[in-house]
Every structure is written in structure tokens, then in C-alpha cells.
User: Which sequence fits this backbone?
């Protein structure tokens, strides 16, 4: 479906996909599990009712948010507010949490690096609707299947996910997303260290564009990560009954990681600013050095050129010209002048 | 009526239009509707009493705020405070909300782009008085009829407006205004992306004025958008009985869009600052390159000019001049000196 | 009386005038009024007891704060704390409000422009003591009689002042002072617009001093205006019984104007900063252009000068010199070299 | 006693003097007074018990904080916590207030200017222990006897000190210290005004070091003054019973002066920043002017030099050289070229 | 064990050591003491149960956090949450406090300088688990045995540690860590003073890299120190029963030292920024001076060179050349021109 840029003029609550164009179709997947039991299948839209079963946790993963009919159908089946559906389909919506009577709605952003050589952040819009005993996750597009590690852990019954409820599943998925921020930051940090070394050792001539690209990525990253703090604060305040007190310590851990990411972003931004300063200082120094070379050349050759000019004049009566050793004395005088000037520049510290 | 710049020295509560000069006359329009019923007409000032009818929603749209007599009459009919009327006529008043016993007063700003080529923000002063079952809207001037999409939706009975009260109508109009901010920001963002590409690729010689114009627009925009947050916070806190709890989720949505606009403004301002830095770096680099060219020329030609000057001297006794190959040896020496200097500059990385 | 700079070492509560030297004598004026009645007279210090009459509002205007005896006498008659009197006489005291058992003490600053050509702010120290049914106002000096508009309105019985109490009078006077800020800001804004145009069109060579003077005035203005917010917040919180709830909407209006002034100051400061940036960019560009001119000249003439130098050498054996067309070939070669260099510079974008 | 730099590795509560080396011995002085009575004497350490006498106020002034034995003895006699004694002897401790069961502990900084020509701040560590009916003051060193004005006022029974309790004495001493800040700020302000004039009139070549020194002093001053706000806030909140409500208005006055000092510091720092900007702009302008001079010289003389070079060539066949008026025509052409170039530079605004 | 960079994709609560590679083995030590009794021994992991003995304080010091089995065993014995153990092993975790039912978990950072010549901060991850009557401390690695001063004081029964509980021991260890910050800051301050002197006296050519290194260290330091404030605030609010009210004054003292460290860091950062400004100003001044030299040389020699060029022309008819004194008059004219230019430059203040 063709993407749109805004909802201007549309009736509020209209379902419109806002984001880059997508070619693929939406893929649905249902995972049901409890301590003893595990089942995965790919349902039709009509049959994906996941709500309210006590004995198992049901996870509906919706991979694709660009088809309004599908999102609308899922929303109708699970009684999700149309404004929530609007947010699920709007990739411009930043991270947030909203509490409703019988579900919690959470938006976060999965971040990836696009391309190889240059760092470019790619943000994937991820939403969760947590209901009693069920979780619905919405992914913008599948870049290397971001929820696979958790799916595999559930299948292999590794870790505590199988022993816990849907709130723990929500935690596990959010933890995955946020731990990935730290992985990206680690990579940016390495790039920055490389750049720092090149700048300090002065082996790179124009690092400003790369510094700028990194700054831009960090600014973008901060914009995505910052509001997640508020999401986690709301969870930790116990605003929702759907997240049990026993799961809160896990969310506190995620909160710590978010703070760690923000700290790391801020530290790297400060480092970048300092590097830009150093770069300018280097530019100034190089300019200074060029100017000094120019000045020394000029100051050295101009007097000499004047001297040879004098003895190139054609006056009838120029006694020096007649002197048999005049030429050699003149050359000697020129050497003395040059030596004197060089000595003077050395004393001023220009050589 | 001739515009005025301030109320200095006037008795407080005096009705004076403060803003740019206007030529048109005020146009009044009343829209009455409920689920089954819809009527539009253009009343005289005296007959536009809209307050307090239970069965229908009455919307009085006042298009023109520069005629004190009309504003005063409307104020008298609907028992609106004279300080409120003063604010309705003062285009310098920023966005705000005030709660009175039986009405709510809201000021916001509709933003447009003036002209085509260069970005210039044009702010239209828009006020609302929400009363029980009625809404009065005041527009500074009609630039392409800003409330038309809502008027049409009511007429066509599209969306939920016809099924809801005056508070939903207020929401629909505010939503329209704020969604338009996002449209403008989208355009500014595109302009900025163009400029960024030109600066990074160095195909634009003096982008500083345009960068400055964009910065100015963003600063202005922030000034208009920022106080709207407070307006919506007050609504969301439930400060007024006139806005029903069922309508609050819609206002929460508008609040989200305002935050999105502010975030976007801030991100673009940061980007602008970074672009200005890059621009300066480019200037410095270009200067450096000019200076190097100068220095290389000077350093290359000065010694050669000295040599030819020496053999232009007129001493009687200059043995080299008599040598039959002297001229060619000298030219050879000059080539060697030039080659040596070029080699030296290449090693210093200046070529 | 000779002015003093500080109270260092003096016993606290000592009455000392701190401010610029004043030559005039203090002038007292009493205005009594109610709905039907109005009287103005100029009392002696001893007889100016204004407190506590129910049926009329009494306004004592003290024009001059540099004579400790007069201030002390007035303070004694009206039972004003000695620390308050100290603040009335200290022109360095910033805006503040203090609530006492039976009076409220308010300090604000009246701002004027000094001189004509250059913008220089002049702050006048204004204090109010609001008592039951009475207001005492203290002005540092009379520059064009700042309270005249209100005095005239009372005399002419225009507006609501005559129908209201002393708290409304306080509002009317504060409103006058604060509306004048907006008038000044309007003038500064016009100056800034002029300057902006000159800078953008590059028709002004050194605007930095004027930019700096404007920045200084705005900084000063902010310093004076900012604390008035707190004064009005305290009034609006209802901290004092002497200001009746019915008068609060008027003070809310003043509060709005103060915020408007602060917003305007901040916007103009931001604009100034941006203009300074543009100015520097212009300086850099001009430097670049100068350097390019220099470099082109040097690069163009140096090779030509070398060529003519070569054929100015005096070697016996220089075959070219003997060639009958040598001179013209050489001139031709020089034209070719010059044309080649000019072509090269044009391709590098320097011409 | 030799000074120490830190308490690292020492048992907490160990009494160590941290600060610059001191040669003098500690001097003790006791002043006892009430409305009718006044006595001053210099006790031995053992006999200086000042606590708890109802009828008189006892003030023990300890001048010297570098001798641990004395401080320890005084602490033991008056039951002062060892952590408090540690703070009394640590000149790095910033201003603070601590409330204990039967005393209040306050640290502030007395500031002086060191030297005459250059501004250098010298901070003196001052602590107070306020007990019922008694005050102990600790001074780091006696620079011109800072508490003398209060001592003299008590002796001469001037002002209200003799009529009030120990809390008023504390106020009087703190007032003295803080009023001195305003005196210093006045001096810095004058220095800054001088510097401003020199910079604006461009009569000073390198003001950056002095600007920097002033900035440093102001930064230091802010560091000392800022935490005093918190001390006074705590007093004004009524955190301590030892300070009577009747004395609070006096402390409110001190609080005002502290805010005034902070405002003044901030305004002067902003001014400094602006001056640094102007200084850089001036540097840039001067550079521009130097470069223009260089460019004009070069551009003017290079073409002329080329012309004379051409007619200095030694070709056999150069018809112009044979022309009897050739020399004069050439000189004429050179004058025309020079005039044309000068005209061109004037039109470009370089002359 | 090989280090790891993140926990991405791992099941939450997995014990992984995140930090630089370590070669050593973990060393355990138990110190038991009370007023009369003291015992130190090195237990096996299995036997190090320290919890809950009333009569003595038991301190288990775990030196090494890279072996998951050991940490896990200790965690199991003392019933420590697996998320806490994760934090103990994650050297990226910043300072924090967490309160559990029967223990308090605290993370702080011990800072050292690495290397000698250049300042490089080395952060050691230190965690504490305070239980009733017992403290477990975890150190990342032993750099000069950071807890030795406290161990020795306990052994020698110096100070109050032996007389107090486990909470006092926690205080003593935290105090040690934080006092060390002040020692480091003292050293940085000295380095900065040296650098300042060199820059102000202009005896150092390129200080930017060292300024940058210092700035980086201070930024890092602030990042480590800042969150400790929150740790201490939580303790001082009395959030935990395990820390007795009698110990709080000691923690308040530590809190003061943390604030002192932060103040010192901020002051030094501000100083650094100012030094960078001065450095740029110096660079600009030096450039200006170089440019002036160049310009003076050029302006002085170009006219002279033109004059000698004129009389080097070969026109047949140049009357001056025939004049017997022409040469000497010309030299004289050149001296006059040079003197005039020098006089002009002196008047413009360039010499």
C-alpha cells in the first residue's frame, strides 16, 4: 500500500499507515506455551483471538503494520481502541505507554544499522498490547527476525520465560530491544575511538562529515531512547495490574539498561563535541603553519630580489658595477642577509 | 480599522484590535447539528445567540476579529468577560486556556507558510469559547478557510463529529490546527534535507542566510507550539466539566501530536546547528586550500625569480655570463630547484 | 543628598539612599476618590496619614526616595517596617513582594529609554505599599510623570478605577508599568529588524558593537522583568487578603503580559545570537574573497614576471634573444600562460 | 602546623587542618552583653564555656582554625560533634547549615581581594555554632579583623544588637559577610566597565588574559555564594528553634542580598562572554584589514613590476625600446594601470 | 575467563562477566570483629556464610568478580537475587542502590590513575551487599589493595569501626573510595594549574591535546561520581532499616564530600573551557602577528623593487640613466620611500 505522510484533514481515528513504502504482506504467528506445553502456528486473521485463556500464555506476533484491514480486524477481535490502532500504524509515533481497562499499550523502537560502511540508524516501529494471559506484538518489518532469540528460548524451554506469564514475555521482548541499543552503542563507540585516534594523530584530513554523521545518529538515538524511560517509570510505579509485582525487578533491570544507554549516548556526544573542537584547532594550526611558510619565503627572498634588482639597473654611473670583485661581494652580502633573517625567524620561534 | 501596537495607557479591558491591518469585513456563520439534523446559516450579529440548547450542538464561527463592535456584541450576548474579549482581539496573545464558571476559553495559533519560494511562517490567531452545547470559534483572517474539512465532514456526516457534543467539535478543530503543524514541519524537514545535501556535497557557496531563515522559522514555531502543551495538560487533568471524560482520549491524541511537533522542531534545530558548524568547517578548509595555493606559488617562483635576477645584474666581472653554456646550465638549475620544492611540498602533504 | 553604594558595615535597617545622585526635592501628592467623589492635594509630610478609611480610596504618591527623613516619617505614620523602608530607598533591590499583617509591599521597575540615538535602558525604582483602602506609591524620579494616565483616568472618571478599591488601583499602576515594557520591546524589535536587514544585505561593515549594545539591554531588561513573574504568582495564589478575588482576573491579565514580555525578550536574544553568527560568517566570507583575489594576482603575475626575468638575463649566449621574432613569441607565450591560469581558476570556482 | 591536602586514609572524624599554611597562633575572645551590660575579655581555652546563660548573650570568637588541640577542646566543652569540628577545620568545605538537637552549625565564606593591581579572590573559612544564648564564631585568619564593625556597634550600643539575642548576633555577622560580597562585586563591575570601554574603543590590544582572570574570579565567587542560598532557605523555613520568628525578617533581608549578589555575578558573567565575542570580532576585523592592505599592495605593484620587467628584457628586436618617447609612454601606462586598480578597489569597498 | 561485551540475546539473569580480561583468580577473605574480638581468615567458597550473627560483625571481601561460579555460589549462600549478581559482574553498571527485604545492594566505582605521565582514569567496579550484621564487598581487581587502610584500622583497633556495626563498616569503605576522588581531583587540579601557567605565559605551542585529555578525564569522573549522590540521598532519606540512625551523620559527611567532588569537577571543567578559549585567542593573535610581518615585508619591498625595475628597463631614451648622480639619487629616493612606509605602519600600530 502506498505510504502517507500525515493524517491532516482526515477524520480522527482513521486507520492510515504512515511510514516508508512496504512491498511484503503481513505475516501472523501464534505461539502458545506454559510450563509443559508449546505450540506454534500461522493463523488466518479471522481466527487469531488470543485473549483471556488462563492456563496458557498466548503470543500473537503481527509482522507488518501497513495493511489497515488486518490491523482493524485484529483490533476489532481484541477490542482495541481505534486511537491505539492509529498509533500502531504510525511509525512517527515515539515510545509511549497507555493504560486501558483491560490492556496496556506500549510503543518502542527497535534500532538497527543500515548499510555497512557508513553508520545509518534504521528504526523499526514495535508495539505491544498486553492483555490478561496474552501478548500481541506488532513489528514494522522483519529485519533478521528480531524476536527470534526469545521464540527459540521458549521453544527450547531455556530460561524462565516458560515458567512465567505474559508480562514476563513482554519484559523478555523489551529487554531484547533495549540490549540491542547497547550493542549499537558499542559499535558507535568503537568508530568514535578510531576517529579520535586519527584526529589526535592528525592522519585524517577532513573528518568533519563523519563526525557530523555520528552526531546525527547519536541525536536520533537519544530521541528514540529517551521516552522509553517514561514507559519504564510508568511500569515501575505499578500503574498497571497486568504486570505482576514479581516481574517488576526484571523491568527495573531494563530501566537500568535504558539509563546506561542514555548515559553512554550523552558521553559520546560530549566526546564528539570535544573532537570537533580539536579538529578546528588542528585546522587553525595548519593554517598558521602555512602562513608562516609563506611569510618566511616572502621575507627571505624579497630583500635579495631587491638587491639583485639594484645591480640590474642601467645607470651610466654605478661604481660598484665596475669593481672587479663587486659581483662576489654582492653574493656574499646576500648570503649574510639571508642568514640574518633566518636567525631572526628562528629566534621568534617560527622555524 | 487601523491596527494598533499596544494597549499602553488605555483603560484595562478596552477592546482594541492589535495586529496587522485588515480590509475585509467580519463574516459570521452558524452550524447546528446533531445525529439526525444539520443546518448552516449566516446570521446578523444580533441574532447569533448559541448558548445552552440541549438537543443540538451549535457552532458559531466568527471570521474576523478586528471589529470591536462585533466582538463586543457577541461577548455581551454570551456573557463573556471583557478581559477574554481583549485576548480574542490581541493577536500577540500566545496560546492559553482559561476556565470560567460556565465556559472555557482557549487561544491557539494556526500556522501557514506565506509566499512560495522562501519559508515564512504566518500565524493566525484562533480562539475558542466552549459553552454547554455550543462552541464559538474566532479566526483572525481566512486563509483558504481553515475549518472547511471539519465543516464538510459535519455536512457529509463523515466520522464521529455528528454523534458527539461540542467538546468533540472543539477537539476536531484543534486536531486540524495541530495536524497542520506536522505538515509544515514535514516541508521544513524536506528543505533542510536538500540544504544538508548541498552543504555536505559542497555545491552551495553561501547557505548561511537560508540556514538562518530556517532557524528563525523553527524558533518562531516553537514559540507558538510550546504553550499549547500547557493548554492540553489542563484539559487532560480534567480541569473543566465542559469536556467529558469520554472525549479525553481524543485530546490525549492531540497532546501526543503536539509533543511530536516539539520533538521534531528540536531535532531540526539541532540539525541546523550542526550544519552551521559544517559550513564553517568548509569555509575554513576552503581558506586553507586558497592559502596553500598562494604559498606554493610564492615559494616556487620567488627563488627562480631571484636566480634570473642575479644573472640580470650588470657587473663587469660575472664569469658565468661569459660561459657559452651558462644560460642552459642556469635554466637546468631552475628546473632542479622547482622540482625539489615541488617534491618537498608533496611530502608535506600540500599537493 | 550624596548617593551611596552599599550598606556595608552599617547597622541593618539604617535608612540610606543607594542610587544615582538626585538634585530635586521629594514631592507628595494625595488623591482621594470613590464612585462619586474625587480630591487631589499636596500635603506636608506630617499630615499624609492615608490608612484605613472605609468610604474612599486614598492614594499617596511619593515622588522621590532619596530623603531618608521623609521616608522615615511616612514609614512611622503608616507603621511600615524599617527593612521595608530600606528596600524602598535601595534602587538595587530587584522586584519582589512581601506580605505583612496589615499591608503588602511590592517593588517593581519602571523602564525608559535614555537618550535618542542609542538604546540605553533607564530603570526607575518603584515601590507600592498596599493597605486597607489605601495605596502608597514611591517613585525614584519623575521622568515624564509615569502615573499620569491613571491620575487622569481617575480625574475624568474613565474606566473602572473609580468604581473599585485600592487593589484595583495597584493593578492599574502595575499594568501601566508592564505595558510600557511591551512598548519598549516593540522599539527594540524594530531596531533589530533594521539591523537584521543591514546584516543580511551586507550593507553594514561593523555591526558588532550595536548587536552587543542591544544584547546588553535585553539582558538587563530580562533581569528586571523576570522577578515580576514571582510577584504576580504570589498575588494570583491569593497570598494576601488585601487583594480581593474579584480583582485577580485583572492581575492574571498583567501576568500574561509579563510572560509575553519575557517570551519576546528571549526570542529577540535568540535572534541576536543568530545575527552574530551571520556576521561572523560574513566576515569569514569576505576574508576568503580577499585571500582569493590575492592568490589569483600572485599566481597570475609570478610566472609572467619569471619569464620576463629570464629574458632580462645578461648571458652572452642566449639564442632566443637573437631571434628577430623572439620578443613577440615571448609576449604571445605570456598571454597563453595567463589565459591558461585564468581558465584554471575559473574551473576551480575562484572567479 | 603544616597544612594537609586531604583526609584520605584517615579515620573519619580525625581533626586535621586542611588549608594553606598558617604561622600565627589562635586568638580567643569572649564578648558578653545584654541591654545594660557589656564585657570583653581574652580567656584561656579551658575557661571558655559560653553555653546556656539566660540573662546575657555570650559570643566566643575563635580566630584561627589550624590548631586541632584548641578546636578539639572547644568542641569538647560545648559538646560539638567531631564531624562538625572536622568541617570547621576544613577550608575546602563549602557553605552549609546543619541542625543538631541543641545547636545549629553554619559554614560560610568571607571573601577579600588579595593584592592590589590584579583581582584575586581570597576566601576565608568562617563557621558559626549557635547555641541557646551563645554564639561561637570560627575565623580562618584575621585579614583586617572582619567582625570589628559588629564588635564596635555592640560596644557603642549602636543599632539593635544589644537589644536582641544570639540569633540576631548571628544575623549581624552573616549580614556583614554578605554585604561585603556586594562591595567586591561593585569593584569587579567597575573593572569590567573599564575593560568594556577599552575593548569597544579598541584601545587595548590583548584583553583576553584579563577577561579570563575576571571570569575566573566570578566563577569562584559564584561557587562560594551559591550554597549560602540554601543555608538561608533552611533558616527561613524555620528549621531551627534557636532562631526566633522575630529575627526571620532580618534573615529574609540577607537572603535578598545573596540573591542580588548571585544576579549580579550572573549578569557580569554574561557581559564577560559578550566582551570575549566582541574581542574576537575585533581580532577578525583587524586581520581582515591587514589582509586587505597586503592584497592591495600586491595587486597594485605586481602588474607594474611585470611591465618594467618586460622592457628590461634583452631581445635584439624590441621596437618599443627604440621609440624616443617609449620610456615616457610606458611610465604613463603604468600610472593609468595603477589608477585603474585603485579605482576598482575603491568600488569594491576595500579602500 | 574471556570477557564479553553485552548480554544481548542471553536469557535475563544469566551470569556473565562484562569487562576487560582478567588473568588472576578470585581471592576471598573474611574478617570478623567486635569491640573485644578480631579474626581474619581465607575461606573456601563453600564455607563463607556470613549472615546473621548478632555478637560480631562479619566482613566477606570478594576480590575478583570474573568467575561466575564463585559469584553464583556466594549469591546462593546469602540468598542474593540473580539480577543483583548480574550487576555485580557487569563493570558497565553505574553507581546505584537497591533495597531488598533483608539486604541493601550498593554499586560504586573506585577510581585510580593508570600510567604515570599522562592522566588516564581507571575505574574499578565495587559492590556491597549489606546484611544484618554482615557486609559482603566485591572488588573488580586489586590495584594496591584499596580496602587495606580500613582492614588495618580494624586490626589495630584504631578509630570507631570496632565499636560499631556493619553499617559503619560500609560507611568506612565508601568514605575511603570517595576521599580518593578528592585526592585524584587535587592531582588533576595541579596539572591544570601547570597548563594554565604555560598557556597564559604562552610557553607551550599546542596544548589542545592535553586540554582535551583532561576534559575527557573530568567528563568520565563526573559520570562515575554523579550517581553516587543518589545512592547517598537514598541512604540519608532512611530508606533502609539496616543503616541505623546513629550512622547517618557519617553518611551525611560522605555526601558532603561527594558534592565537594562534583563542585570541583565542574569548576575545573569550566576552567578548561576558558583555557581553550584563551588558546584560540592566542592562536589568532599569533596568526595576526604573522600576517602583519608578511604584509609589512611585502608593502616595504614591492615599491622598492618596482623602482629598481624601472631603471633596469632598456629604453634608448631614459634621461635619468645618463645623469651622473642618477644612481645615488635613486638610492636616496628608495630610502625615503622605505622610511615613509615604516612611519606609516608605526602610526597604524603595526610595528
Assistant:
Amino acid at each position: 500500500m502506498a505510504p502517507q505522510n500525515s493524517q491532516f484533514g482526515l477524520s480522527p481515528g482513521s486507520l492510515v499507515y504512515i511510514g516508508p513504502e512496504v512491498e511484503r504482506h503481513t505475516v501472523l504467528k501464534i505461539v502458545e506455551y506454559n510450563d509443559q506445553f508449546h505450540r506454534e502456528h500461522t493463523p488466518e486473521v479471522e481466527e487469531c483471538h488470543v485473549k483471556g485463556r488462563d492456563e496458557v500464555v498466548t503470543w500473537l506476533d503481527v509482522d507488518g503494520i501497513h495493511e489497515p484491514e488486518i490491523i482493524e480486524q485484529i483490533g476489532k477481535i481484541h477490542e482495541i481502541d481505534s486511537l491505539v490502532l492509529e498509533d500502531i500504524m504510525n511509525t512517527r509515533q515515539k515510545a509511549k505507554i497507555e493504560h486501558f481497562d483491560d490492556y496496556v499499550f506500549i510503543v518502542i523502537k527497535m534500532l538497527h544499522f543500515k548499510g555497512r560502511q557508513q553508520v545509518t540508524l534504521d528504526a523499526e516501529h514495535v508495539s505491544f498490547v498486553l492483555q490478561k494471559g496474552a501478548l500481541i506484538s506488532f513489528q514494522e518489518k522483519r529485519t533478521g527476525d528480531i524476536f527470534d532469540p526469545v521464540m527459540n528460548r521458549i521453544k527450547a524451554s531455556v530460561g524462565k520465560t516458560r515458567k512465567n506469564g505474559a508480562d514476563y514475555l513482554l519484559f523478555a521482548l523489551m529487554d531484547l530491544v533495549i540490549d540491542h541499543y547497547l550493542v549499537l552503542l558499542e559499535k558507535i563507540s568503537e568508530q568514535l575511538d578510531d576517529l579520535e585516534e586519527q584526529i589526535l594523530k592528525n592522519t585524517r584530513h577532513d573528518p568533519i562529515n563523519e563526525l557530523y554523521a555520528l552526531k546525527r545518529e547519536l541525536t536520533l538515538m537519544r530521541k528514540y531512547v529517551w521516552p522509553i524511560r517514561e514507559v519504564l517509570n510508568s511500569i515501575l510505579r505499578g500503574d498497571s495490574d497486568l504486570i505482576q509485582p514479581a516481574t517488576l525487578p526484571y523491568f527495573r533491570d531494563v530501566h537500568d539498561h535504558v539509563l546506561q544507554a542514555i548515559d553512554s549516548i550523552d558521553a559520546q556526544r560530549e566526546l564528539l563535541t570535544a573532537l570537533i573542537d580539536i579538529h578546528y584547532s588542528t585546522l587553525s594550526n595548519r593554517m598558521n603553519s602555512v602562513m608562516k611558510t609563506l611569510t618566511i619565503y616572502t621575507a627571505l627572498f624579497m630583500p635579495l630580489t631587491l638587491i639583485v634588482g639594484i645591480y640590474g639597473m642601467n645607470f651610466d654611473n654605478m661604481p660598484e658595477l665596475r669593481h672587479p670583485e663587486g659581483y662576489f661581494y654582492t653574493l656574499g652580502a646576500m648570503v649574510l642577509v639571508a642568514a640574518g633573517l633566518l636567525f631572526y625567524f628562528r629566534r621568534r620561534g617560527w622555524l
